[in-house]
Amino acid sequence: MDDHFPSEGRRRVVIENLQPRFEDGAFPIKRIVHDPVTVTVDIFTDGHDHIVSLLRYRADEKQPWTEKPLEPQGNDIWRADLNISKIGLWQFCAIAWVDHFVTWRYDLTKRAAAGQDLAIEFQIGANLIAPIAERAKAKHPEDAQFLADQLLRLRSDRPQHERTEIALGGHLEQLMIKHADRTLATQSKVQEILVDRPKARFSTWYELFPRSCGEPGKHGTFRDVIAKLPGIAEMGFDVLYFPPIHPIGDSFRKGKNNAPNAQPDDVGSPWAIGNHDGGHDGLHSQLGTLEDFQALRIAAEKHGIELALDLAYQCAPEHPYVKEHPEWFKLRPDGTIQYAENPPKKYQDIYPFDFETPAWQSLWRELKRVVDYWVAQGIKIFRVDNPHTKAFPFWEWMIPEVKKAAPDVLFLSEAFTRPRVRYRLAKLGFSQSYTYFTWRTNKAELTDYFGEIARPPVNQFFRPNLWPNTPDILHASLQHGGRPAFLIRLILAATLGANYGMYGPAFELCDGEPREPNSEEYLDSEKYQLKNWTWDHADSLRPLITTLNRVRREHAALQHDETLSFHPTSNDAVLAYSKHSHDGRDLILVVINLDPFHPHEATVEWNPALLGRHLPMDYEVRDLLSGANQIWHGHSATVVLSPEHPAQVFHVG
Amino acid sequence: MDDHFPSEGRRRVVIENLQPRFEDGAFPIKRIVHDPVTVTVDIFTDGHDHIVSLLRYRADEKQPWTEKPLEPQGNDIWRADLNISKIGLWQFCAIAWVDHFVTWRYDLTKRAAAGQDLAIEFQIGANLIAPIAERAKAKHPEDAQFLADQLLRLRSDRPQHERTEIALGGHLEQLMIKHADRTLATQSKVQEILVDRPKARFSTWYELFPRSCGEPGKHGTFRDVIAKLPGIAEMGFDVLYFPPIHPIGDSFRKGKNNAPNAQPDDVGSPWAIGNHDGGHDGLHSQLGTLEDFQALRIAAEKHGIELALDLAYQCAPEHPYVKEHPEWFKLRPDGTIQYAENPPKKYQDIYPFDFETPAWQSLWRELKRVVDYWVAQGIKIFRVDNPHTKAFPFWEWMIPEVKKAAPDVLFLSEAFTRPRVRYRLAKLGFSQSYTYFTWRTNKAELTDYFGEIARPPVNQFFRPNLWPNTPDILHASLQHGGRPAFLIRLILAATLGANYGMYGPAFELCDGEPREPNSEEYLDSEKYQLKNWTWDHADSLRPLITTLNRVRREHAALQHDETLSFHPTSNDAVLAYSKHSHDGRDLILVVINLDPFHPHEATVEWNPALLGRHLPMDYEVRDLLSGANQIWHGHSATVVLSPEHPAQVFHVG
Fold first, then answer.
1. Peptide bond into B344 cis (omega under 30)
2. From B35, B310, B318, B414, active-site residue
3. Disulfide-capable partner of A600 in A99, A358, A573, B448 (CB 3.0 to 4.6 Å)?
4. From CA B306, how far away is CA B296, in angstroms rounded?
5. Residue of chain A minimizing CA distance to B421
6. A439 touching B, CB under 8 A?
7. Taking the model in full, what pTM does it have?
8. Helix H or strand E segment including B194
């Protein structure tokens, strides 16, 4: 007869609902180093026996566990604070057991208070101590000695009150817990915390095509970019991201404005990676040498700017992989390699990898080697192109493997795709993610979308990075709204998102020209040609960008997304939201006119006390954009906003 | 070098968020046979390939899976309806794979529409069919033949439009899916559904001490209970639950009103189980023989009443287990067996089992044997005494094991303990659970508590059974509120809960006499003595009980708890709530005065349209207690309620 017994039926303690986590701990939660982490967990057992509960934690899975007590909060909830003191993949869990000594000690106080005869109780206690004293002998002889002494005293014929005092000794209890028999202890599932450096949560990105940084009409170089660094740094950016800088393929090269056939002097799309010069670990020769690149990287560093590279896992037909590893691609029956398609459209300049290849292991190994190579070159931030067209198991493996050796590496997911796909990529380890912000322009859209991504469970794993434009996306609002639309989208991105970025020159200079009506493609896009930017245009957003980025650096409230709250306004064209620092001292209220064509007035209703900030009835607010002060009274205020000055960014109190 | 590769890196489909479930599927969800179950699940892959997704299900784990298609709902959500056609522990999961044939077929339509040359495409399609035709050969030769034929036609030199027609054939696609290679398919975790008979959700309990059913002053018998059956059936009860009916111990027997020392003629507590006559599978000799018990069970059945026994896993000192299996108990240093305690209180008439005994397997086996024994005697409902003082792993094992052989067995958990402990027991398999209803009397308490237990996740695993009183609990409101308090608590229990019960004679006859002030113990409790009930008292609640139970039988709205909604009233003493049948046709609105001392008037605000019921501006309501009709207008109605007629139970429209 098969009884279907569990292997151990005497594990009486139940551990449930370990927090923080989401999806029952299937993925790590994300935090920044030194973030306060409060662990709570439900722990209980049958009956009335007492439980000892500990938090176990470690900075990586190879270390032994450190333990600290979980403290009961009532109603079977226990808690402890965890100090995540360095970056890496932390682990924590709870362990607990029914402790018969602790139970016995607790009961003894009640029996003693009731004046009961305790003779047999002392025997019971001594019998509980004996095996623990024995256990402690080998490694902690002094503990074992102390326990053995107490045991003898309990078994002695000393007066009851003396033996009671011995039984209740604090050190005795400590040692009994320290050396407790954990055979029947219950341990929870292990929860992981992906602990990143602060830039994962707070970063300011500028995207630039290095080849457009040269003299007019000439192909720019890494050295040319060095000359741009002071201006970018002055504006307050701390990440400078380049589209791919690798050799560009020739076959089926696209011409200007994505023309199917390139002219001889067309420079091609940098996303068509690889030619006879090399592939993903090579440099496009017209940009310069590895030495030039390093000079640029070091110069940027001196300006407080980190370079971010584009990780676009695809090949041009001349990529060395195609000859060396045809097994990584799909073959067509005619023996040619399968190009990218979206039938009936063909993209013959691009060969995608086949993630179902039997040679997936060597493919994965090589793709990771590319990252490791650039990490060795000092690059710690990667913007990943179309990660949603590569197999999820690859990211799930690659990102943690890279971070094992280099935990400060960050990956930004460029996945403007379906919500569940984007969230899955974030769960698998991407440090930051592009968002739908690019297409969310009215009040309801913004409120709904940020209501979703700024709250659990999404904010446990998904760190938004807000882009008002990219080289691929010139949103209709920027095509039609003129300079005010750029102002609005800039202020929203910089204040709604602790991470934000822009495809720099085009945004800064208010380029709103599409290739054709109803297209999100730029006219004369830099994706296919060199571009001559008039860097010092009078309409440039440079002053506002500089102000906003300074405000972001000066205000902790804007350096994370957790406290974002929307507040009702009397006008659907006006959006109001606040963010505040965790200590409540820095409180920012943004009121913004979303209509680039008309001025609007609105009354904002808000209650700072609900945000943890208790203010007098009359309090001062200062618009950080204009520098003007006002005195507000109570819970509402009226604001007038023009298209030319669409927002006020108030520092409160 | 260890690459830490997963065993298979090419499983490209992701399956998430299989519903319904709670706690990520750690426990079965509970349903009643024939309940509609709609399964939804998020399924997606990288890129643009097409997915085939199936729901797999079976009525128990030993059967092979049945499969049916999951249908895409957009936004990566898939769905299928599951027909749970019999009781048992069902299983379901989702399986899905990237299907290259389905993808190819979809792309082909677009290529054909664009007028492209498809020669190579037909080769690709044929290459996809070839291995599947080969796979099908052994078991489905006719399918294999069809596939082979289509393959040849695709490879032939027929005109492109003919080959396109062949490629798009519906039967070809069906067979390609039927025989698809699932090597790289993803399967979700398996979710279980504990499917019970309808009584698990809708039952009406009457608790009775058989020993009090005799002639005044004489110990009642099973035969005496038979005489009470017509009255209990007339009132509309369908479960008759007895406190333990086993032999009662002598040592340390408690006297009347829990006196520490029994008098020679004291009958003792039936929860002190076991003496020289036998234990948990024996019958107390004064109640009758097994034959008498069977006569009672069969007589009850004829009245539509099922007997429920009390499962109290504890022993009196004379229980046969104590001698035969001392290893199932804790020993004290003096060689005696450890009695129950709540220091400094001692309960020397009770020996608890030691669930940490090394002999736990033989203990578990015996405890289950007791249940199996009574199941063999025709008992299918057990009210489990203090399950929270027995180890959780035992219930987790025992309940499913019993139900494997007898899936119609139901267990009611008597655990008036901490919320997480009670919920854990429900998760482990208890069919119904006692609730805090017994102590929730005012409007806020009732609204909060039922707001919690009637909603997910709690209603996925916890089926409340509402008791206004038990032999252990005479709530203060019944001590002080007189007959109106009994009316109120009765109507609440019968209409808030699809399962409800009462400690019958005491409730029916409005016994509100506590042993002492501020005690919840009854004076002259039946737990310790025979009781002489005046069954036909003029104040008896019998008429109202009869009406309420008839209303419950006649109205589907009251036979489940899922649609419970509270509605605002203008008076804190008046509670209003509705329930409706799933088809919306049966709609009940209860308006009840919670104050047993004063009449109250209240205006109820409600909107039947929000409950799915669209009514004309003027509609009829009928009070099912008084039979009186009214015409209501719009979304509010004013009701006046006296303590003597504290509620109106309206059938609407």
1. yes
2. B414
3. A573
4. 10
5. A44
6. no
7. 0.96
8. strand B191-196
